[in-house]
Amino acid sequence: VAALLGRAVQRGGGDASPAAAASLHSPSEEGSHVSGGGAATSRRTSRVRLQPRSSFTRLTHGGGDDVVPAPFRVHVGADLYPADMLFVDVGRVPNVAELNLAAAGVALCKDTHGIAAEATCQSSNRNVFVAGDVGGAPDSSVQLAQWQGYHAARNALLPGSSRATPDSVPRVVFTQPQIASVGMTHAAAVAKYGAERVRLVSKDNESLHAPCIEADMHGFVHLVAHKDGTLLGANIVGARAAELVSEVALALGVKAKLSDVALAPHAFPSHTWSLFQTTCAAAADGFVQHHSVGRLFNALYRGGAASAASASNVLQNVLRRNSGVMATPPPVSAYSSAQPTPTLSSSATATPVASERLSTSLSRIDDIDGKDAL
Q: Right CATH number for 2-83 from 3.40.50.300, 3.40.47.10, 3.50.50.60, 3.30.70.20?
């Protein structure tokens, strides 16, 4: 809220300095790319000065020795800010103190002072459901309240239950540029799955078409994915970050992979094309590194005897799984242009057709220059 008000004042010609900017990002975003690079980008482009992790110390009346007389003096640590108007963002506190909830068997959460609820939105009283700010969620927002409200109504009226987990609910700070995130941060994904099973795909706005066309190149797209390509989360900074993160939220809801987003047609040169560019690059990289055929293409592209031998091994593994053919890889020297086609030995279960297919494939590896082939 402080950032939004500061932005509004700045657009009106004023100079805004939100002092308590430590609350700009939700706890789940602290330490992430959004709270780091995003805040820095927002400070630079909107001319709204932020003091991250600052603390308000005291407020005094202006006047006296002030160079420019002002009604207020705001003291933030060792810094002094003269101000004509003071906005105080006190946050949200669930208004439940006078409801006598204990009489209804509804327990409160000691940390948030809101109503304690499960993922199904049920309170300790199974007939009382909770949605929105009354639950005291740290990432409280309109979209989270709507999401919880749907599940609360569904679970109250229909058999069975559904879980209102906030994993696919976007979090957006409407500064300029916008700062948006959804799902897991990279740090959270690494903590859950391990660094070797997590991919971070990044594109700066300077390399994306739509931001360049509009000369709005401050920002980035960071996508967090599992090693198998399943999307886990996103951190996005840009003029249309809220729209982009909404598409990622949909992808998270259906457990889509990077390749699924890349295969979906996107309008050029819309801002959603930025997601298309990012996921295309990620899908191609994953194909080359983790798919058998992709590794073969990569080996061919690099060219040379050693690469041809590597491609041969990959191809043999593919065919072995498909037809049971066992081929004895020849030495690397066998792949020079002066050498004949490699000799194959097949297992007793190999079929003549599969063996011939393998022989033909290896011959082509011997004759084709990798770069020309691709």
A: 3.50.50.60
**pLDDT one-digit tens code per residue, 276-308:** 889 888 887 777 777 777 777 777 666 554 455
Can you list the pairs that 147-155 forms with residues at least 24 positions away whose Cβ atoms lie under 8 Å?
A: 148/121, 151/120, 151/121, 152/121, 153/129, 155/120, 155/121, 155/122, 155/129
- The SS3 call for residue 230 is strand
Specify the CATH number of the domain 171-287.
Answer: 3.30.390.30
Q: Are 361 and 315 in contact (CB under 8 A)?
A: yes
Q: Is the pLDDT of residue 49 over 80?
A: no
Q: Report the alpha-carbon distance of residue 56 to residue 62 in Å, rounded.
A: 17
pLDDT band at 188 (very low <50, low <70, confident <90, very high): very high
Length of the chain: 374
| pLDDT at site 51 | 55
pLDDT tens digits, residue range 198-242?
999 888 888 888 888 888 788 999 999 998 889 999 999 988 899
On whether the CB atoms of residues 312 and 343 are closer than 8 A, the answer is: no
User: How is 244-302 classified by DSSP, letter by letter?
Assistant: HHHHHHHHHHTT-BHHHHHHS---TTSTTHHHHHHHHHHHHHHHHHHSHHHHHHHHHHH
